[in-house]
Structure formats: C-alpha cells, structure tokens
Amino acid sequence: MVLCAFFANLCEIILSLCNSSNLFSQYMKKLFKLILNTIPRPLLIRLSYIARPVLAFALKGSTYTDPIDGRSFKNFLPYGYGHQRNNVLAPGTLSLERHRLLWLYLKNETDFFSASKKVLHFAPEQAFYKMFRNQKNLDYTTTDLYSPLADVKADICNLPFKDNEYDLILCNHVLEHIPDDTKAMQELYRVLKPGGMAILQIPQDLNRATTFEDNTIVDQKERALIFGQYDHVRVYGRDYFDKLRSIGFRVVEEDYTKTIPAEDVERFCLAKGEIIPVCFKD
Q1: Is residue 119 helix, strand or coil?
Q2: Cβ(171)–Cβ(142) under 8 Å?
Q3: More confidently predicted of 240 and 218
Q4: pTM of the predicted structure, to 2 decimals
Q5: Pairwise CA distance, residues 150 & 163, whole Å
Q6: Which of 50, 64, 220, 271 could be joined to 97 by an S-S link, Cβ 3.0–4.6 Å?
Q7: How many CB atoms lie within 10 A of CB 62?
C-alpha cells in the first residue's frame, strides 16, 4: 500500500513536470533509472498499471505514434537501467523500440493475427499481453519464473511442455538473463513444432563479433555498465545467430527497419538496424 501511494504521488509530479519539457526530460531520466534499479520487476509490472493512464494523458500529442495501440504523443519516455535512452518508452502500452518493431513485423509479414496457432510466450510484455490474450485465433500460453502475467511458472532450461507442441514461440530479451543459454535454446527447439517459428530477440552489439561473458563481475553497477543491465549475464555479438543454427534452427536475420519508410522509423521511434532473429524448425 505504501508503494501504491508513492506511485500515485509520483504520477501527480509527472503531470506537473510535463508543463516544462526541459524539466520533464531531466527528471524523467533520473526517476526512471532509479525506479528500474530499485523496484523488483514483478512489482514494477503491477505498479505500472497505476502510472500508465496518467502518463498517456499527460503526454498526449501528435509527434510520435505507437503502432501497437495507434495512439500519438508529444514525447515518449526515457528508459534504461544503466545508459538512459531518450524518447523510447511509449506511455500508453509501455512498448519499447523492439516491441513496436516486432508488432509491425508480425502484423505485416506473418499470419499471426489471422491463422489458428498454439503460441508460447516467455516473459510476456505488457505491451502485448492483453491483445494477444484476447485474440480468438490463438491458443495462447504465457510462461516465466517470476512474472505475475505468467500462466505457467517454469524454468526455461527445464520446460514442462511436450516435444513439438507449439506453432510459435516468442522469447524476447530473456536469453541474456540465462546462465546456460545453450540448454535454454535446446528446450525452445524441443517444444517448437516442425515447421514452427520462434522469434528470439536479444539485446545485441552488432559491432562485436563474439559474445562476451564474465561471471567474475558481481557488482551490480559494474554489471549494468558492462552488460547494459545488472541482471544480464552476457553481451551477445554477431555470433548469436550461428549459435542458434548450431542448436538446429534455420535463422533469418531480419533487418526489418530497412523495409520501413524513414519517416515511419522516426515516427514510431524504432531502432534503425535492429535485427529480428526469426527462427524456424524445418
């Protein structure tokens, strides 16, 4: 209850700050960094339901558009556990660049919104959860160890699902948290149906040829600085795609922003050049 009251007061402060764009930018970056690094993620998910409508109302405008819900805003919010990225968190759905890119890909390039599919969604994002849950064409299951949005609490390295069970797997920004990502990838491959598709997004440094790991780094601030987030265990390089291929996946490295007009990349606040790893079990 104390945290709920804190969040309610916080929303009032945000509303007042929105009248000054300079103050808003300055305080939001500091505030979001503090919140992300101090409040446990499961609780943060619950509390965000209080903040979302206030933020969406305060920032309504016409400069940027979230393609997931079609709403437009004068600004998006900053986001980042270590380095703060400006103008990336849409206040209506709480989508980030990767969510909006994935939404556009699923909508424009797949039959996700029309064909009958059995879907397994790891660590379900709030930006998608209600929409995917309400789709009549999907047999939709969510899973995670800790998320309050998970139907099945499960370890990705030891999944309680049958072989060849799912038509589509969504597992986005999960593998960088998993010490034994090889075992996790093997489990994803095992439960995917032959002919099925898995989208396995990760934070990736495309300037790095090989993935970097160092489990001797234990200080949270140092981990956030090096890995981008205190609870990440590696920085994936370009070799990520070949690791997926070694598991058995056929991998399409989808540079989808290349197909999107430059004005829409800017309007939707997408990360130009971000690769979607689209994986198939042939």
Answers
A1: strand
A2: no
A3: 240
A4: 0.84
A5: 20
A6: 271
A7: 9
Residue with tokens 């940027």: 64
| Residue of 152, 175, 149 lying closest to 235 (CA atoms) | 175
CATH code for the domain defined by 98-280: 3.40.50.150
Residue 8: pLDDT above 90? Answer: no
How confident is the model at residue 229, as a pLDDT? 86
- Residue 128: both structure tokens together: 């998608």
C-alpha pair distances (Å), 170 with each of 27, 197, 244, 280: 34, 9, 15, 12
pLDDT attached to residue 84: 78
Going from the C-alpha of 180 to that of each of 13, 164, 189, 272, 279, the distances in angstroms are: 42, 22, 15, 30, 19
Parallel, antiparallel, or unpaired: how do β-strands 85-89 and 60-65 relate? unpaired
Question: What is the DSSP secondary structure assignment for residue 137, as one 8-state letter?
Answer: T
Give yes or no for residue 97 having a pLDDT over 70: yes
Domain residue spans in the chain?
2-95, 98-280
What are the E-state strand segments in 116-274? 117-122, 138-144, 152-153, 166-171, 192-199, 212-213, 234-235, 250-254
Q: Which residues of 215-240 are buried (b: 16+ CB within 10 A; e: fewer)?
A: eeeeeeeebbeebbbbebbbbbbbeb
- In which residue are the tokens 């309007």 written? 267
| CA-closest candidate to residue 217, choices 232, 205, 236, 239 | 232
